[in-house]
């Protein structure tokens, strides 16, 4: 009988669905053979501590996205230390926004823009965490890759931008370049500590 994994994502917003391919890649990095079910999604409100005091999930793992914003990563991680009733929480804390973790792949951005042959100039992975507004930066790259459409086409493109962000993540098959980032390595380490099938 194959191993199976259920999980949930506690997110800050709808675009955090782009975390799904990242999470699945990281899980399969630990266990290539596990069958992963579609995640449950829940949008968090209030503090981490208050939210998880009432949170109830039957899934095996819960991934909680939290931007570090203007605080050091270690300070954000401390927020999770007070949660004693939820032993299987895996924090996902990009330094700024989850969009920063998909900025490194030019091919995926071009495909998501609908122009797979476009040349997209992306930042170096080590520079990603220094970008002030990763979401806006990604949107600009998508728009430029699509040829900076105007008029009705431009409006239609802008209306689809949220889904295009998620598409970028789904087009990336290898997230190992992110292992240059300390925040991503901390995410992998937290996952390895909580993963049910870790040897």
Question: How would you portray this structure in words?
Answer:
The longest helix has 13 residues, at 182-194. A 4-stranded parallel sheet has the order 4-2-5-6, covered by helices on one side. A two-stranded parallel sheet has the order 1-3. The chain has 199 residues and is an alpha/beta fold. Helix 4 (106-112) packs across helix 7. The chain is 39% helix and 11% strand. The chain contains 8 helices and 6 strands, in the order ββαββαβαβααααα.
Task: Summarize, please.
By secondary structure, this protein is an alpha/beta fold.
If you average the pLDDT, what whole number results? 90
Q: What structural class is derived from the secondary structure elements?
A: alpha/beta
* Number of DSSP-assigned strands: 6
Poorly predicted sequence stretches spanning 5 or more consecutive residues: none
Oligomer: single chain
First and last CA, distance = 18 Å
Q: Report the order of strands and helices.
A: EEHEEHEHEHHHHH
CA-based shape: globular
Share of helix among residues?
25-40%
- How many whole angstroms does the radius of gyration measure? 17 Å
Beta-strand share of residues: 5-15%
The largest beta-sheet arranges its strands as 4-2-5-6
Number of helices in the DSSP assignment = 8
User: Quick one: biggest sheet?
Assistant: 4 strands, parallel
